[in-house]
Amino acid sequence: MLKQELLEKCEHFIQQKTTALQNAMQGLKQDLENESKSSAGDKFETGREMINIEWNKLSNQLQQYEQMQSVLKRINVKTDSRIVKAGSIIFTENANYFISIPAGEIIVQDTKFYAIGSKAPVAIAMLGKTEKDSYTFNQQEVLIKKII
C-alpha cells in the first residue's frame, strides 16, 4: 500500500512536469509560426534559432521524464525488499527514502519520504545493504532501520 502510494505520487510528479513541458513546446511552436510570418532578415534568423535552441532543450527534458516513467513501470509494488535496490523504501534514523526517480520530498501517510534515483549519492551508499546495516554518507554513519 505504501509503495503504491509513493509510486503514484512519483507518477503524478512526472505527469505535471511533462504537461508543463508539452505546453511550453506548444507555445514555442506557435512562436515559430508567428516568427515565420514576420519580416525576413537577420532578426528573423536569430529569432528562429533561439526558438530552435529552446525547443531542443525542452525536448531533451521531456525525454528524461519519459525515461523516468519507464523506471517507475519496472518497480514491483507487490514485493518487499530485503536489500536496498531500485523500488525499495528505506527507513533510516535520519530520513526515509524511496529509490525510484529524483522527485524530491513526498508526504505519504503523514510521513516524509525523499524520492531519489538509484544514481543519487545517498542511494549508491545504501545499495545492497540490509536492515540494521549502516552506511556512510557525508562522513556520517547512518543506520538502516527498515526496508520495504
What does this 3D model show about the protein?
The protein is of the alpha+beta class. It folds into two domains: 2-73; 89-147, no CATH class. Helices cover 50% and strands 22% of the residues. It contains three helices and six strands; from the N terminus they run ααββββαββ. β3 (104-108) and β4 form a beta hairpin. The mean pLDDT is 93.
Provide a short characterization of the protein structure:
By secondary structure, the chain is α+β, with helices and mostly antiparallel strands. Helices cover 50% and strands 22% of the residues. The protein has 2 domains: 2-73; 89-147, no CATH class.
Report the principal-axis shape: elongated
Strand content: 15-25%
Q: Please state the average pLDDT score.
A: 93
Unreliable residue stretches:
none
| Gyration radius, in Å | 21 Å
* Class computed from helices, strands and strand pairing: alpha+beta
N to C succession of SSEs = HHEEEEHEE
Biggest sheet overview: 6 strands, mixed
Q: Tell me the total number of β-strands.
A: 6
Biggest sheet strand line-up: 3-4-2-1-6-5
Euclidean distance between termini CA atoms: 11 Å
Number of helices: 3
Residues in helices, as a percent range: 40-55%
Count of the domains: 2
